[in-house]
Amino acid sequence: MRHLYTFVLIEAVARAGSMRKAAEDMNITASALNRRIRGFEEEFGSPLFERLPNGVRLNPAGELLLDYFRTSRSDMQRLQSQVADLAGERRGHVTIACSQALLPYFLPAQIARYRKEHPGVTFTVKIRDRARAEAELASFQSDIALVVEPVYMVEFEVLQAIPQPVMAILPAGHPLAAKPELRLRDCLDNPHIAPSAQYGVRHLLDLAARRMGRKVAPVIETESFELIRHYVAHEGVIGFQVPVGLQPDADGALCFRPLAERDVAVATLILGHLRGRTLPVAAARFAMQLGAAMEALHAGRG
Amino acid sequence: MRHLYTFVLIEAVARAGSMRKAAEDMNITASALNRRIRGFEEEFGSPLFERLPNGVRLNPAGELLLDYFRTSRSDMQRLQSQVADLAGERRGHVTIACSQALLPYFLPAQIARYRKEHPGVTFTVKIRDRARAEAELASFQSDIALVVEPVYMVEFEVLQAIPQPVMAILPAGHPLAAKPELRLRDCLDNPHIAPSAQYGVRHLLDLAARRMGRKVAPVIETESFELIRHYVAHEGVIGFQVPVGLQPDADGALCFRPLAERDVAVATLILGHLRGRTLPVAAARFAMQLGAAMEALHAGRG
DNA sequence: CGATGCGGTGCAAATCCGGCAACGCATGCC
DNA sequence: GGCATGCGTTGCCGGATTTGCACCGCATCG
């Protein structure tokens, strides 16, 4: 949108922390950028940046203006989406910030299902841990978030939430696989592989272990849930994941057993968006579909 | 604001109903205007106007866009006001739509009082009857409205409301002036002067008269409350006005007597703004002052 | 104390945009 | 039926705005 170009530049400068860096990012010269910003500051009636010896930084007025711009841009996109919708085109773009657990099975299936009905809609999928997903929403960089056990924020509006008991991933022949439900103690006594600290599942495991005076001591600690799933079969260690990240009927090499609820708190899969925001048509409809799918998932297992 | 100029043009075209007329209004040529609009339509992805043989008209997409623009502009103004405020300048502009009764005494006093503290704030005062005042708010053309007995609208958010019994204005020596309270019947039996139909006071008088099978039959019917006030002394007829439109201690030529409440319903002076809107700082503070002044007025009399 | 990187500025080139005139078209009027 | 009027629209050109380049003053740092 052309009439918002100046704001895009302002945002770039704010992000880069210096006009010259921002100018390079935006493929214009520093002088052009500088003049645009000074020009706007004059028109606006107040400086937006503090000029420091090694760059610039937004002042309070600039922060306020950036807020204005971000909501303004978001509104404009929603408007375009609405207009495209009433023209019968059902076009649009959905940006979603989600936990890694959603990537292998749940989200691809859902996106495919949605795009089958509305091929004009495109997607951006960002992997964000719990805290950063909410920052994404707050700065309008994502429309919706789908995360496991997010940190609580007042600006987060929950659309749907379902429980997700933490599951142990076992190789098919593992002795513990005989039991229908596992104790955390048994898992910790065996070699195991766990996600690193920023993930929700690990957080719950750490809490539970500390409560019983133990520690999670994985042979491998990783940021990749995919690595966990695949490594379990190779060495015969125990992995952890929530159900939504597991294919209900694997090929027989792995089996999944829930951890006892009295040991490890049940995780929650939460779908939400920024409180008070009106989503673009496409994002709103996709969120509705996700909510229904979560509901079905929950009902199907409970 | 330069970056919103295209929207201003779009608004002008929507208002004029034709590009050539709008171009004349905005002091540019029709071709320039046309190109701006076509250019924006292309960038936006959808036409905004239906092209008719004798002009243009907004289509639904255009209506939506105009909404977006008006809130966007209003937000920008509020932002500038906020920034000026945090710079300690207390600048800004307040646009107020009000009933005629407020013009002679109440509003001038209030504005003077506010400007004494904040000389940087300027005012626009529009005279609007009850219905049009609310239309002004809805299209962001006024910040606040101060009207007598407004028609009810869901989008109107009441900040303060005080009762205003309808008063009769009598020449000092008038026989009816002996009574502390007048009956409507007595007034109608004497020659009287009344505001025309669109005004709140007249509306209440008409309702009351009809209830007792009478009619308001003024010797003069006028849109000017000032004329009413001044004419009463000249011919000795009875005029009508709400207290806020009357100077408490006149020079002795006139006296004011309330009409019996069982005859004529008490009017209401209402201060409000558009529901859900966040006012610019200056407008919000001025509205707060007005609210307090109304409160004091009410307490002082009751 | 030179090198580096910063924001800001003078000047010429390039780009954008507005005004003028004209076109195609529909309508209204003799 | 022709003529006039008013509408949106478009090619062309001149002027205003913006951009890129080179450069300045300044602060920091090795």
Write a brief caption for the model.
Chain A has 302 residues and is an alpha/beta fold.
Task: Describe the fold and architecture.
The structure is a homodimer of 302-residue chains. Chain A has 302 residues and is an alpha/beta fold. Chain A has 3 domains: 4-64, Winged helix-like DNA-binding domain superfamily/Winged helix DNA-binding domain (Arc Repressor Mutant, subunit A), CATH 1.10.10; 90-159 and 269-298, 3-Layer(aba) Sandwich (D-Maltodextrin-Binding Protein, domain 2), CATH 3.40.190.10; 166-265, 3-Layer(aba) Sandwich (D-Maltodextrin-Binding Protein, domain 2). In chain A, 44% of the residues lie in helices and 21% in strands. Chain A has 10 helices and 12 strands. Chain A has helices at residues 5-16, 19-25, 30-44, 60-86, 106-117, 130-138, 184-189, 200-211, 225-235, 281-301; strands spanning 49-52, 55-58, 92-98, 121-127, 144-148, 156-164, 167-171, 193-195, 220-222, 239-241, 254-258, 267-274. Chain A has a 5-stranded mixed β-sheet with strand order 4-3-5-12-6, with helices on both faces. The first copy, chain A, has a 3-stranded antiparallel β-sheet with strand order 10-7-11, covered by helices on one side. Chain A is elongated. The N and C termini of chain A lie far apart (48 Å). Chains A and B meet through helix 4 of A and helix 4 of B. Chain B binds a DNA duplex (30 and 30 nucleotides) through helix 3.
